[in-house]
Amino acid sequence: MGFEQALSLLNLFYCFLGVLLGTLVGVLPGLGPVATIAMLLPITFQLPPTSALIMLAGIYYGAQYGGSTTAILINLPGESSSVVTAIDGYKLARQGRAGFALFTAAIGSFFAGTVATFLIAGFAPPLAAVALSFGPAEYFSLMVLGLAASVALAHGSLIKAVAMVILGLLLGTIGQDLYTGTPRFTFGMTELADGLEFIALVMGLFGIGEIIRNLEDESERNVFAQKVASLIPSWAEFKSTIKPILRGTSLGTFLGILPGGGAMLSSFAAYSLEKRIAKDPSRFGKGAIEGVAAPEAANNAGAQTSFIPMLTLGIPSNPVMALMIGAMIIQGIQPGPNVITEKPELFWGLIASMWVGNVMLLVLNLPMIGMWVKFLTVPYHVLFPGIIAVCCIGVYSVSNNAFDVYTMAFFGVVGYVLVKLDCEPAPMILGFVIGKMLEEYLRRAMLLSRGDPLVFFQRPISAVLLILAIAALVLVLIPSVSKKREEAFRE
Amino acid sequence: MPSFVKNPKDFLAGLLFIVVSAMFAFGDVDLPIGTAFRMGPGYFPMILCIILAALGIAIMTNGIRVEGEAIKNFTWRGLLNIVLPIVFFGATLRGLGFVFALGITVFAVSTASLHFHWRTALINTVTLVFFGWLIFIWGLGLPIQVWGPWVGGY
Fold first, then answer.
1. Can you give the pLDDT at residue B44?
2. A316 φ/ψ sector (left φ>0, alpha ψ -120 to 50, else beta)
3. How far is CA A19 from the centre of its chain?
4. Are the Cβ atoms of A218 and B115 closer than 8 angstroms?
5. What 3-state DSSP class applies to A17?
6. A430 CB contacts (<8 Å, ≥6 apart)?
7. In this structure, how many other beta carbons lie within 10 angstroms of the beta carbon of residue A397?
8. Which of A56, A179, A194, B119 is the most exposed place for a label (fewest CB within 10 A)?
9. What is the pLDDT of residues A238-277, one digit of tens each?
10. Which residues of chain B make contact with A396, given a CB cutoff of 8 A?
11. How far is CA A185 from the centre of its chain?
12. Could you give the count of Cα atoms lying within 13 Å of A67 in the half-sphere of its Cβ?
């Protein structure tokens, strides 16, 4: 049934559009999948739900492919999850082996994408079945675990990440109270009665804020694109990439499922793993193919398995998944374990489309590499006004309201200031999305328990989840672990 | 930065969190708190405000105690030249209509770049307005006036 959906002409078209756009924003530095998906979210109103989600998903994993091209050819991460690929990929390109590096990145991504797709198909339905038995206490604890893990896995200061989550939760409380309808924190502005517009918030933080940051340093980038010679490597070369790809895939699929995980964390972790187990770690940084194969496989695997918690539990594990949930809500679908049983065509269609999309990406990225390289020659100062134009029109069109444009501008400033103060905006977005649900489940659970907060520890599943959440935070605080965490994010 | 601040990033971040929590606490005063059993609209935000203020104080204290790097490359030019035109877009879209509001906005944000050149910016503006119209108004049919009442539209 999934393939029937995914192979319908309409969905094939949107899948193609998604991966094409994804590759494009992946290739272009300074424009990531989060901002792109936020920009396109208003447009998906008009599409059928399955097509909309297929396209948006395609942007996310498509960007993982595209990001490697930029990283390898110009030593700039086209996408944040390709930061580590640039280290060895660019060195390979300088040695005239760009073709080999690009081939490895694409094949690694393809293999990982295929494995991850099957994993989602296999694991999501049973997980959703378990989730159906969850009460409000379990949901509350699960969300706390999700937030705790996203904090533990975020880079930078732990305490700031916690503060950012709380800030996001607070921003989420703006608007009418769910139970009584009392307006909260609207400060007299009627436009805030329905809460802050999510799209405006994300576009401001990740779109506008990012542009301002990019304008700090406008050094010209040199495209290292002499002819990309033969793409197909020799058998011996190919063989040397198999094991790193396998390792990267397994690490990525695992880290993708974790709340707070996803593409970026996976690639960083895969790179440090390769470096650790290599016979000769000094080769890294000088053009080791493992340093391309493993992170690229891992980021694609992680990008795709991060759909599992989103599809089965309705809980976003990273900002992209938060946007996917936003897209579902726009389409009138209540995210959660019921999606699989109530909307099987959407669930299976989306999964099948991922595999189809990965095949398309292989074709898009290998034979057509030259075209993407051309895009890299577009200078940023020509590019960014266009991004701003799309953001402005897009955010206005959400409800034909200038207020959303102001909100976006405001959060553009906030986003820039926060980044300058070393506060990652990603945990805040998660807090914002989860905020309303978290409060609702908290209040319901407390009603059921007659105001006894111990209920969260008396129910076994809830207790385990909360203990895991506490463990995640405590672990990071242990000195030896926190040192490793810093190592993983450096370079 | 005053000299007792050793890590301006942490100090300011902490201050920011404290100010935000104070703002929300101010808005929370009028809301019924309720009890843990029947939480009112003010209960959950109140807990959050307390946690955020505590974290803010901890982060700020960190900024006084532990050495850290200064804030580098803060770009006022980038910030103002991007944000003000966007506000302008929101304020004038209804009055000026799509072509002028977007055109002026795009041209104005172009000046944020050090590589700004009026000719490239102008070409870029015309191209973007045209494609913006093609995709969003002609193609997707967004209900935005092409020419607003201020420039002779209706």
1. 92
2. beta
3. 15
4. yes
5. helix
6. A146, A147, A150, A165, A168, A260, A316, A318, A319, A322
7. 19
8. B119
9. 888 889 999 999 988 888 887 666 677 788 888 888 888 8
10. 89-90, 93, 144
11. 30
12. 30
- Measured CA to CA in angstroms, residue B127 lies from A389, B15, B119, B133, B139 at distances of 11, 44, 12, 10, 16
Q: How many domains does chain A have?
A: 1
Any chain A CB within 8 A of the CB of B133? no
Amino acid type, A208: I
Which range of A46-55, A370-379, B37-46, B124-133 scores highest in mean pLDDT? It is B124-133
- The pLDDT, as a whole number, for residue A238 is 82
Q: What is the ipTM of this complex?
A: 0.94
CA angle in degrees (0–180, nearest 5) for B84-B90-B93: 125
How confident is the model over A108-165, as pLDDT tens digits?
Answer: 999 999 999 988 888 888 888 888 888 889 888 888 888 888 787 776 788 898 999 9
| Domain interval for residue A168 | 2-489
**Angle of CA points A10, A11, A12, to nearest 5°:** 95
Q: How far is A168 from A432, CA to CA, in rounded Å?
A: 4
B82·A187 Cβ contact <8 A: no
Q: What is the pLDDT of residues B44-54, one digit of tens each?
A: 999 999 999 99
In angstroms, the first-to-last Cα distance of chain B is: 53
Classify residue A204 by its DSSP letter. I
Contact B115, A221 (CB under 8 A): no
| Nearest residue of chain B to residue A380 (CA atoms) | B113
Domain ranges of chain B: 8-65, 76-151
Structural contact between residues A248 and A296, judged by C-beta atoms closer than 8 angstroms: yes
Q: Which two tokens stand for residue B132?
A: 């913006």
Tokens coding A194:
């329905």
Is the per-residue pLDDT at A300 higher than 50?
Answer: yes
> Does A482 score more than 70 pLDDT?
no
pTM, full prediction: 0.85
Give the Cα separation of A325 and A224 in Å (integer): 39
CA dist B20 and A171 (Å) reads 10
Report the pLDDT value the prediction gives residue A225, as an integer from 0 to 100.
Answer: 53
**Nearest chain A Cα to B89, which residue?**
A392
Pairing of strands A175-176, A183-184: antiparallel
**CB count in 10 Å sphere of residue A192:** 19
Q: In sequence order, which ranges of A331-401 are alpha helices (DSSP H)?
A: 338-342, 344-365, 369-375, 380-399
Of A23, A327, A62, A25, which Cα lies nearest the Cα of A199? A327
